[in-house]
Amino acid sequence: AQTVTQSQPEMSVQEAETVTLSCTYDTSESDYYLFWYKQPPSRQMILVIRQEAYKQQNATENRFSVNFQKAAKSFSLKISDSQLGDAAMYFCAYRAPNTGNQFYFGTGTSLTVIP
Amino acid sequence: GAGVSQSPSNKVTEKGKDVELRCDPISGHTALYWYRQSLGQGLEFLIYFQGNSAPDKSGLPSDRFSAERTGGSVSTLTIQRTQQEDSAVYLCASSPGGRGRNTIYFGEGSWLTVV
Fold first, then answer.
1. Looking at residue A9, what is its pLDDT?
2. Is B51 left (phi over 0), alpha (psi -120 to 50) or beta?
3. Closest approach of chain B CAs to the CA of A62, in angstroms?
4. DSSP string of A58-83, one letter each residue
5. B111: which chain A residues are within 8 Å (Cβ-Cβ)?
6. Cβ–Cβ of B41/A102 closer than 8 Å?
7. pLDDT of B91-102, one tens digit each?
8. How far apart are CA A79 and CA B66, in angstroms?
9. Which of A115, B41, B46, B67 lies at 20 to 30 Å from B56 by C-alpha?
């Protein structure tokens, strides 16, 4: 079965600084998609960014960018110019259309933003 | 509505009672997922519906848990003879399904407390 590992249960960052959240995954598929979701205290899961495995270019969404290393099966999230509203749980997720189309989630990283 | 709707948002029940949690996915979405999130934990997959296909029930933790999806739309997750360890947030999500870069959209969850 596919697994997604987030090795950092908790992270903190000073406001306006940059932080990187780690994610690794295990798969034998070549066609898959990777996602980062944010879950603030309201519990609503929000898509932050997604990456198609066939694309070599790292996805970017404003202050959020990823470092996708396909050979290393690594998918880290970089948050630049951190804001207080970025404080949340962040979940890495994987999906492979050819193997059940499931979404597999990591255990999450709790991000604290220090004013 | 525009998003995934779940009800009730909060439910307190006595140990041994049955509970039903409802999910109304985004209109037109063929895929529907149930996840469980225990306090401070990641997302545990429970069950997945895709169109008219047989659901993937591989994540249901015991035979006390069941789910159905009527008419390819609304889904109900039923927990019989609830136990204290069932206390968690139950998240429903839907997706347009199929291949491609489609993502998964979550509801706000149903917070179940078994006392």
1. 93
2. left
3. 19
4. PPEETTEEEEEETTTTEEEEEE-S--
5. 43
6. no
7. 999 988 665 446
8. 39
9. B41
In this structure, chain B runs to a length of 115
Cβ contact, residue pair A102, B48, below 8 Å: yes
Q: Kindly state whether A64 is in contact with chain B, defined as any CB-CB distance less than 8 angstroms.
A: no
Of A47, A100, A106, the CB nearest to B42: A106
Rounded Cα distance between A53 and B1, Å, is 32
Report chain B's terminal Cα–Cα distance, integer Å.
Answer: 32
Q: How far apart are alpha carbons B57 and B60 in whole angstroms?
A: 6
Chain B closest-CA separation from residue A14 CA (Å): 23
Residue of A47, A97, A103 with shortest CB distance to B33: A103
What are the tokens at B41? 């934990």
List C-alpha distances in Å: A103 to A19, A62, A71, A92, A115. 25, 24, 21, 10, 34
What are B2-25's pLDDT values in tens digits? 799 999 999 999 999 999 999 999
Q: Which residues touch B67 (CB under 8 Å, ≥6 apart)?
A: B34, B46, B47, B49, B55, B57, B60, B75, B76, B77, B78
